[in-house]
């Protein structure tokens, strides 16, 4: 007990001198020219979305609260614009790949994998698409990082960063630089989006969301295998069941024309009915609206039950009514067998080219009229199939782009797949904040706010804000509510 009394008296008499010495040691450590060590606990967070009004401190003065809310609202809008802009550039990169002969071995004529004389869809203007990747080329080694975290970061520094990407760093990535140079013809030049008031940490946090969404989208080869199945189905039907496929396509085209004609007539009728409806009594208008809502729900239920399969049943009926003597089209069961054989051969890493013997090993009863289309499809698509150990996004993209363009060429727009997240331009995205980004938001001009730590010392840098993140958050938010 006596020791406790002595200790308390010592602390009471020497507290200020000890605190001053400790502050001087910390200050000297900050200016010694070395970077502070950042642990993973300072970087990795589990984040969630929340309304600001629920967690902001209630005791803040009204003027400060209003200034903070305006800063957060402005940042929220700018971050949403940043996400849309960088996603736009990523989509432009994917579009440019189709014509970028500097990286890919030439282009590919879609008509080469279709029967002679096949007419493309009326809505499609694409005739050539991306070629296969070279097997071994030092120039295309950097292509493997396309749409990965490092590549998206390079896009950010090239187009958005106020400092910009260093030339020494850009020279290490000739494949990406070739794409950037190709984008200049579309008006997307270096540093085009750097005129933004967003600070570095605010953009980095938004960039993490973009990178994570892209990674989640390609976390499995679902897009690749889905397009492979759709493309093989369509190509086999076009080659080996041309009559049935032509009738189905004509039926779909006729149904589309009828729908567009009906929509145009409905718009004219709606304009003529507007004046009549406006002159009706109030109760009559309410009854009409109620009846229309009931009919709409009733028709929607029917559509969900029947309309999805209507065109398939119609095509089957037309097939049954066809000339029974016409036996040139293969059955659907046979097409499924051939598709399974083609898919197995395409995914076989031990073969780069195929012959009739390879096809017969996989499907022993293949006939001569089936062999030529199958070998044509196999040898055309095989250079696009990545090895099992190289199933990164970049090596899947050439085949996926080819499949998308070929399906559009044939007229199957419903199988078209997107390769990049598509953020909505009409909605605001959740603002992801940490200690560093929140400090930059609060201290941004105009109306910069000063942030102090628990010892009433001014926080003057992002590094200090990172080390005192609890203080930065507590200055604005109610931590108990969080």
Would you give an account of this structure?
- Residues 251-264 have a biased composition (Basic and acidic residues).
- Helices cover 59% and strands 1% of the residues.
- The protein is an all-alpha fold.
- Among the domains are: 78-219, no CATH class; 434-482, no CATH class.
- The longest helix is centred in the middle third of the chain and has 39 residues, at 282-320.
- The radius of gyration is 32 Å and the shape is extended.
- The protein starts with a helix and ends in a 6-residue tail after the last helix.
- The model is unreliable at 29-36 and 319-325 (pLDDT under 50).
Please specify the SSE layout and strand pairing:
Elements: H1 2-30, H2 52-55, H3 62-97, E1 107-109, E2 128-130, H4 149-159, H5 167-170, H6 174-183, H7 200-217, H8 222-240, H9 242-278, H10 282-320, H11 332-346, H12 356-362, H13 368-381, H14 393-410, H15 435-442, H16 462-467, H17 469-476
Antiparallel strand pairs: 1-2
Helix pairs in contact: 3-6, 3-7, 7-15, 8-9, 8-11, 8-13, 8-14, 9-10, 11-13, 15-17
Region (Disordered): 251-276
Biased composition (Polar residues): 265-276
Biased composition (Basic and acidic residues): 251-264
Largest sheet: 2 strands, antiparallel
**Structural Rg:** 32 Å
Q: How much helix is in the residues?
A: 55-70%
DSSP strand content: under 5%
Structural shape = extended
Residue-averaged pLDDT, rounded?
80
Structural class estimated from helices and strands: mainly alpha
Widest sheet: strand ordering? 1-2
Total beta-strand segments: 2
Q: Count of DSSP helices?
A: 17
Residue windows where pLDDT falls under 50 for at least 5 positions? 29-36, 319-325
Topology pattern, helix = H, strand = E: HHHEEHHHHHHHHHHHHHH
Q: What is the distance, rounded to the nearest whole angstrom, between the alpha carbons of the first and last residues?
A: 41 Å
């Amino acid at each position: 007990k006596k020791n406790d009394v002595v200790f308390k008296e010592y602390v009471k008499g020497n507290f200020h001198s000890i605190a001053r010495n400790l502050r001087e040691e910390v200050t000297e450590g900050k200016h010694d020219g070395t970077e502070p060590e950042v642990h993973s606990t300072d970087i990795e967070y589990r984040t969630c979305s929340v309304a600001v009004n629920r967690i902001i401190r209630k005791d803040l003065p009204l003027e400060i609260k209003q200034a903070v809310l305006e800063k957060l609202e402005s940042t929220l809008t700018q971050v949403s614009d940043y996400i849309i802009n960088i996603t736009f550039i990523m989509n432009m990169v994917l579009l440019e790949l189709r014509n970028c002969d500097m990286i890919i071995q030439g282009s590919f004529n879609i008509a080469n994998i279709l029967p002679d004389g096949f007419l493309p869809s009326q809505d499609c203007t694409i005739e050539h698409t991306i070629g296969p990747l070279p097997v071994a080329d030092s120039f295309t080694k950097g292509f493997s990082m396309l749409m990965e975290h490092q590549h998206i970061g390079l896009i950010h520094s090239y187009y958005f960063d106020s400092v910009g990407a260093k030339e020494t760093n850009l020279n290490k990535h000739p494949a990406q630089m070739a794409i950037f140079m190709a984008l200049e013809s579309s008006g997307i030049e270096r540093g085009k989006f750097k005129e933004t008031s967003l600070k570095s940490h605010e953009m980095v946090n938004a960039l993490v969301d973009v990178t994570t969404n892209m990674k989640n989208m390609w976390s499995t080869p679902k897009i690749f295998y889905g397009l492979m199945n759709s493309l093989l189905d369509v190509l086999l039907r076009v080659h080996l069941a041309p009559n049935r496929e032509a009738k189905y396509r004509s039926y779909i085209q006729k149904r589309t024309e009828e729908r567009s004609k009906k929509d145009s007539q409905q718009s004219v009728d709606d304009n003529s009915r507007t004046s009549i409806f406006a002159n009706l009594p109030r109760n009559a208008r309410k009854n009409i609206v109620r009846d229309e809502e009931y009919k709409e729900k009733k028709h929607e239920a029917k559509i969900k039950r029947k309309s999805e399969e209507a065109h398939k049943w119609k095509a089957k009926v037309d097939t049954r009514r066809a000339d029974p003597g016409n036996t040139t089209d293969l059955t659907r069961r046979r097409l499924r067998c051939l598709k399974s054989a083609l898919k197995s051969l395409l995914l076989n890493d031990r073969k780069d080219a195929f012959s009739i013997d390879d096809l017969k090993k996989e499907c022993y009863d293949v006939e001569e009229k089936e062999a030529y289309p199958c070998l044509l499809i196999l040898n055309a698509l095989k250079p696009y199939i990545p090895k099992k150990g190289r199933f990164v996004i970049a090596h899947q993209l050439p085949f996926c782009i080819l499949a998308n363009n070929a399906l559009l060429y044939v007229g199957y727009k419903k199988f078209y797949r997107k390769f990049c997240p598509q953020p909505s331009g009409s909605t605001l995205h959740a603002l992801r904040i940490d200690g560093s980004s929140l400090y930059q938001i609060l201290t941004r001009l105009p109306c910069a706010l000063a942030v102090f730590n628990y010892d009433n010392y001014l926080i003057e840098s992002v590094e200090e804000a990172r080390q005192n993140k609890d203080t930065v958050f507590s200055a604005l938010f109610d931590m108990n509510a969080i």
